[in-house]
Design a protein that fits this description.
This protein has about 190 residues and is of the alpha+beta class. It is built from four helices and seven strands, in the order αβααββββββα. Helices cover about 30% and strands about 30% of the residues. Strands 1-4-5-6-3 form a five-stranded antiparallel sheet. A two-stranded antiparallel sheet has the order 2-7. A hairpin with a 2-residue loop joins strand 5 and strand 6. The radius of gyration is 20 Å and the shape is globular. The chain starts with a helix and ends with a helix. The model has no long low-confidence stretch (mean pLDDT about 85).
């Protein structure tokens, strides 16, 4: 009987953890700013341990895609809805659009080095009839090359355009996407 009770309590504990995780993810999805944490890898850096300049664009775009993963839901009308989506870009394309970048700005504020921990804040910045923009702010809690804390490392801004898959021409934002992004405007 002990084994049965043990299994019962283990199953209930697991169920409670799963429910708590689902509620936590739902709360995160409603946040207007999502913070993505990233550790700088050795391969992101030059031989001196300073992050290569082009890697910052990867950091920003990957953080935006991670935020979209949390903000956007899978489209239940998608014919492939039985397959799990792999992230924000796929969820964005689930609105039957192609979202190429129209503009990308990046400003460096402090050097970032190998093994630094970045906290990257992503928010929806602007929505127009045919485009949407994200603001990115990356901070270092500590730096190996500075005694300061909570250091602004870089900022970025990405604007994406909605394009039709069939015509490759600019189209208005799908209403569901516009509604979701509008709810996230800061």
């Amino acid at each position: 009987m002990k084994n049965l009770n043990s299994t019962f309590f283990d199953d209930n504990l697991l169920l409670a953890v799963i429910i708590k995780r689902i509620i936590h993810l739902a709360e995160i999805a409603e946040q207007k700013t999502i913070t993505i944490h990233r550790t700088v890898l050795f391969g992101d850096c030059d031989p001196e341990g300073i992050v290569y300049t082009p890697r910052f664009s990867y950091f920003a775009v990957e953080a935006i895609q991670d935020a979209l993963t949390l903000w956007l839901e899978d489209d239940p009308s998608d014919s492939n809805s039985n397959k799990p989506k792999s992230g924000g870009l796929r969820k964005l394309m689930g609105y039957d659009i192609l979202p190429p970048a129209r503009a990308f700005n990046l400003e460096f504020h402090h050097p970032v080095t190998w093994d630094d921990e970045l906290s990257i804040d992503v928010s929806v910045d602007k929505i127009t009839e045919r485009s949407f923009s994200f603001a990115v702010k990356a901070r270092l809690e500590n730096s190996r090359i500075s005694s300061k804390t909570n250091i602004l490392a870089f900022t970025a801004h990405l604007t994406q355009v909605c394009m039709s898959r069939e015509t490759n021409k600019s189209i208005p934002l799908p209403s569901k996407l516009k509604q979701r992004l509008t709810a996230l405007l800061s």
